Each structure stands twice: as structure tokens, then as C-alpha cells.
Amino acid sequence: MAQKTLLKGRVLSFNGSPFEGEPTEAVTISEAVLIEDGRISAVGGADSLISANPDAEVVNHGQHVIMAGFVDAHVHYPQTAMIASWGKRLIDWLNTYTFPEEMKFGNPDYAAEIANRYLDLTASHGTTTMCSFCTIHPESVDAFFTAAQQRRQRVVAGKTCMDRNAPEGLRDSPQTAYDQSQALLEKWHGVDRISYAITPRFSPTSTPEQLEAMGALWAEHPHCLMQTHLSEQTDEISWVRELFPDARDYLDTYEKFGLLGSHGVYGHVIHLESRERDRLREVDASLIHCPTSNTFIGSGLFDMDGLMREGHRVGLATDTGGGSSFSMLHTMASAYEIGQLRGSPLHAAQLLWLGTVGSARTLRMDDCIGNVAPGMEADLVVLDLASTPAIAQREACADDLWEAIFPTIMMGDDRAIAEVWIAGRRESS
Ligand code: GUN
Ligand code: ZN
Fold first, then answer.
1. Which residue numbers delimit the Aminodeoxyfutalosine deaminase/Imidazolonepropionase-like composite domain (predicted)?
2. Of all atoms in ligand 1, which is nearest to the CA of residue 202?
């Protein structure tokens, strides 16, 4: 008989979007969740689930919050070792810190070491799925997927293609980018919980010929995600204008090569023009907010309120190592602060939704991850709402659940993660 585990606690699930109507009404709190064969088989009252499943192992988490594992919709796992590098803006930051580090990933041993280090760090922070850029090297993709496969994690990643404005050793060509991406896609896409994303880094590091080759590959595999960067910094946008003088705007440098579509995942999207916003909305593309990165590299303030009102599909991400943290809690705190700076603070329910359901929606995976509901894959995080003395004393005088959760969002880190479950298996305790 299949092994059953019943987790008792305050089980938090979303029954709708907290961006439509009163945020708290989008949330249901239940007493228990039943895990069976790597999936959630039931959510509901503890007594009734226990009596219906007397064979289940019961784990009582008391007042801890049990919710979906965090989904980080835009990261660069190869930038793990150079996170928190000082004092540069985007293009100088790439040239000074990022490219020299990414150069090392042709070595499969180094790639495996960092992939495992990254997945250890993210699991300890409660992240169970991420969508990662790799490097130009196929070895970097193999290393990441191999490590994720061993941990039975649902992940998305792809070879980062660049054929100009990058150093020797970190450039491919339109043809090798196409061939290697296709080979990796055919090798990995759909294996266990692994998905391949076609990954041109961004317009400045791809020739029109390479963007065209990526567009052709995507047209042959339209159900794959395509991830890239869009409109992150004003000096980047000026550079794109010089490199593509015929393009109407930054988005057009992708659109004209077949790199705009519903399965497109665009990181940052801070300084969008109205035509770009309209087109992204029309095709129902995914927009990823990377708040700690946007403040750390000095990029700007994402327009969450405006984009949500327009009905965009929005997710949340650390953007490690442009982002300054592996923690999605910290990333939610940063999103809250950016909302404050723009005059529209996000509710705790909205922050938690962005880091779970919202991100899963952007990766087109909300049918299997990002929420606690029967049939979903059992990727769960157990949050201790009193994980440090500072948080505990604030939580102790909270009047309701939301006031109790918010200090953990604002001040929590890996110490707030009491347990992580991946595919129905406990990772840490
Ligand atoms: N734009 C192109 N590459 C990168 C990257 O690695 N990080 C960030 N933040 N922006 C980028
Ligand atoms: Zn990025």
C-alpha cells in the first residue's frame, strides 16, 4: 500500500487571486493535508482525514503554516558564487563579475558543485521549483538537470545563448546555439520533473541571426518556455536602440524574430513603453518581478499595481546573483518595499501568492505546483512564524493570521523554514 503522510498545522491554500477583490478572501486555512505517492491527495479537517486514513503517519506542526513550496521564476544558478558583488550597474556588473564566473561552467565538475550548492541553498530557504538560466556551456545544463533529477525537483532551465558582446569562450554562434539547445531540449524536456526553456540571454548579446535561430527553435517547440531579459535598465535600453536601429522598441527586437508569445517569460520589465505593455498583455506573456535585483543593480521600480490592473501574468523571482538573496521570503519583503515606494503596498496574501501560484502561472505549471490542493504535486514548505526572537515578539502580539505572517515575510530567512517537502518527501527538519 502507498505510504501516506498527514501534515497537521495551519494549511494555507489559495482559492482565487488575492489581486481580485479582498486579498484575504482568496485564502483558505485548513487543518491538515494528506500526502500520498508524491502528491497531495486531500486537504481538510484533521479528525476526518485521520479517521479516513488510519494508516497515515501523522506529523503535527501545531501553529506552523503549511503552504506550497516557493517558486522562483527567474534565477541564474551559475551566479551563486558571485552573489553580492559590489558597486556596478548592469552592463559593467555582467562584464566585471558575471561573465568571468560563468566562464568556469565548461568544467562539468565545477558546474555540478555549484548546481548542488545552489539547490541545497534554495531548498533550505523553502524554494522547491525555479526557472534558471545556465551558461553557454551544455555542461552547465546537464549539471543542473542531473542535480535536480536526483532531488526529484520540478525545475526549468536552458542553455544561455550569446554570440556577441561577451568574451571569447562565452560566445556560441546562431548554428551552435540552435544545435546545442535542440539537443539539450530533446535530451531533457519532459524527463521526470524537468522542463527545458529556450534561453537567449538578452538582445545585446545575440546577433539578429541568433535571435532568428532561437525563434525558429521555439516555433518547432511552442510548448516549451522561452526565457530572456527585457527592459531592465535605462542604459541597457539605449544600447538596444543603438544595436537594433530598426526596432520599434526593446520588445520588438524579440517580436520580429518570433520571440514573443504566450510561453515567453520576460525578466525585469521595468521601463516598458505602452506598445510593449499592450503586446505583452495581448499575447498573455509572463512578466517576472525581481525586486532585490532591481534595487541591488539599481535598475528601477517594477509597476506591480499598474501591470496587475492591466491583467498581466506576473511572477516573483530572486534573480540570483543579480538579486541579493536566495530567499523568496526576503524577495517578498523587497517587493513590499518597492510597492511602498510606488505608493501601493502589497498585502501579505498577495506576496505569498506571487511567490507560489503567481510564479507557477508564469511558468505554465499552476496545474501541478504552487498551491495546496488535491492532485497537486506535494512540494510544501512549513513556516515557523516565531523563528527568531525579534520575529517571535512581534508575532506574539498579532491580532490575526495576517499580522502573524507579515513579520516572517519582512524579517524571515532560512530559519523560518521548519520543513521542506519535495515530491512528497521531507527534505529537512
Ligand atoms: N541581463 C542579461 N543578463 C543578465 C543577468 O545575468 N542578470 C541580470 N540581472 N540581468 C541580465
Ligand atoms: Zn536574469
1. 32-56
2. 2
Q: Which three cell numbers stand for residue 196?
A: 527545458
Cell 508569445 -> residue: 261
**Domains, the chain:** 4-68+370-428 (2.30.40.10), 70-362 (3.20.20.140)
In sequence order, the β-bridge partners of residue 227 are: 265
Q: What is the distance in angstroms between the CA of the first residue and the CA of the last residue of the chain?
A: 25
Cell of 332: 517578498
Q: Please tell me the predicted confidence (pLDDT) of residue 2.
A: 72
**CA proximity to 172, closest of 213, 113, 231, 131:** 213
pLDDT tens digits for range 381-391: 999 999 999 99
| 201 Cα–ligand 2 center, Å | 8
pTM score above 0.85: yes
The residues near 47 (Cβ < 8 Å, ≥ 6 apart) are none
> Of the candidates 77, 94, 123, which has an alpha carbon nearest to the alpha carbon of residue 425?
123
Query: 110: which DSSP letter?
Result: H
Index of the ligand 1 atom closest to the CA of residue 205: 2
